[in-house]
């Protein structure tokens, strides 16, 4: 990866009408209903964008959507990239660098995750307070990273305090359960064993998923304020573990998504 490839992607998207986004949004698995709230001005499929990876997961649409939400210009990733699809960390985070190149000032991320904390319930939301990277690598571990910013990025506060405070207030206002916890990011695509769930609980994880952390690391590298919310789609109690399918996970995510949309919409309004 080099700065010139990002410039090419950015210029292509500007010619497609994506000109002045203020907020970038990444939609997680089963979380696409937010697009119904946007006055759409432009849609560009990933396979048309120079240097963009292609989405391979069937429930990830694979396009950038640009429009207006709550009076703000937003650019939305409908479909993200994962290690389990065979991508590397620079592929996964390339769209974040492109959205930053287009001019976004804030980044909002959503994901579907399993609840490790046994006091959390399926369908609840969790605001990420911190994370544990168990994906075995870093999106900053490449030779010419210094061309994009400082190599050694501070991660003492990876999630923006101001946006987190706003989301907590909005959740209280709307009587939405919004836990605050630690997200562990694993490779996948297999779900965890009982022993792995016990391990995750011991090391301090409240939820587990297969995304988000690479994008958050790169946002911090770009000094781009970021916030992330997990929709908790299953309860991962190793002593009472039941089989779960991706179909069920997506169904729970879709049912809980309106709560996340309410929070994201009102947050965008006050940014």
Automatic annotation (TrEMBL):
One GO MF term attached to the UniProt entry: purine-nucleoside phosphorylase activity
UniProt entry keywords in alphabetical sequence: Glycosyltransferase, Transferase
Gene Ontology cellular-component terms listed: cytoplasm
Keyword field contains Transferase: yes
Enzyme Commission identifier(s): 2.4.2.1
Nucleoside phosphorylase domain mapped to chain residues: 23-269
Role: The purine nucleoside phosphorylases catalyze the phosphorolytic breakdown of the N-glycosidic bond in the beta-(deoxy)ribonucleoside molecules, with the formation of the corresponding free purine bases and pentose-1-phosphate.
Membership in a protein family: Belongs to the PNP/MTAP phosphorylase family.
NCBIfam families: PNPH, PNPH-PUNA-XAPA, PRK08202.1
Protein's name in the database: Purine nucleoside phosphorylase
Organism whose genome encodes this protein: Imtechella halotolerans K1
Origin organism lineage: Bacteria, Pseudomonadati, Bacteroidota, Flavobacteriia, Flavobacteriales
